[in-house]
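Lab meeting, item 3. Inverse folding demo.
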């Protein structure tokens, strides 16, 4: 991790010392994770250039997975620094189902650090909307919580009002990729036009990619030329 310390960090650390969410040891670099737990996070180092699917071969140059070659998704590129397993899975799970909000800040800072180094900055960040029934039962949208930190770190605007999810997809995890795509058809609508050319869709986890594909397709249909996907982890 890069050691970036300014006086704000120093005062914050003094008042509220960062503590590793995973093991309780002092945090490193103003983050709520220690150096040792950070080193053990499952990094997604070899993945498809387009959808970030984890490839089981070492690659030297950017490559596309078989699925992106045969059925290119609507989005252009995916940035997913981690694999959805081990402590990353734990951090995301506790955020979503245990309302551990400080996990959102940590995940947001880790994602921001990753995209800052390699991604072309979009004009705005669009967190994947939740259906209102899901939002009501959970009380928050984990993607928005993560996106707030990322937007703040990168000084980019957040869009929370242009798109809505008007169909809930409650049993997504139990469906095959093909059925997921079908189940998601027309799940999102744009209710306010966006006057931009480049958007980053942000989500916590990308599993098959069908959710972000659907949202990206809607954005492209509405004239947005470049749609990237930023997710904390790829399953
Ligand atoms: Zn730790
Ligand atoms: Zn791919």
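The presenter then showed the designed sequence:
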């Amino acid at each position: 991790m890069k050691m970036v310390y300014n006086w704000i960090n120093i005062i914050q650390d003094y008042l509220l010392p960062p503590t590793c969410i995973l093991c309780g040891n002092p945090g490193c670099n103003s983050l709520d994770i220690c150096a040792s737990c950070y080193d053990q996070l499952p990094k997604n180092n070899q993945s498809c250039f387009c959808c970030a699917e984890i490839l089981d071969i070492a690659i030297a140059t950017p490559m596309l997975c078989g699925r992106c070659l045969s059925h290119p998704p609507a989005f252009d590129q995916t940035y997913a620094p981690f694999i959805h397993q081990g402590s990353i899975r734990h951090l995301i799970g506790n955020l979503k189902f245990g309302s551990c909000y400080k996990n959102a800040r940590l995940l947001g800072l880790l994602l921001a650090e990753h995209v800052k180094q390699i991604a072309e900055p979009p004009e705005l960040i669009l967190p994947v909307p939740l259906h209102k029934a899901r939002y009501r039962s959970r009380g928050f949208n984990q993607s928005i919580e993560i996106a707030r930190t990322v937007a703040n770190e990168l000084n980019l605007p957040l869009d929370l009002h242009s798109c809505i999810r008007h169909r809930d997809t409650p049993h997504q995890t139990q469906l095959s990729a093909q059925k997921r795509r079908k189940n998601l058809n027309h799940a999102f609508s744009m209710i306010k036009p966006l006057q931009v050319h480049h958007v980053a869709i942000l989500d916590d986890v990308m599993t098959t990619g069908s959710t972000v594909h659907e949202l990206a397709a809607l954005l492209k249909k509405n004239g947005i030329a470049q749609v990237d996907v930023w997710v904390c982890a790829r399953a």
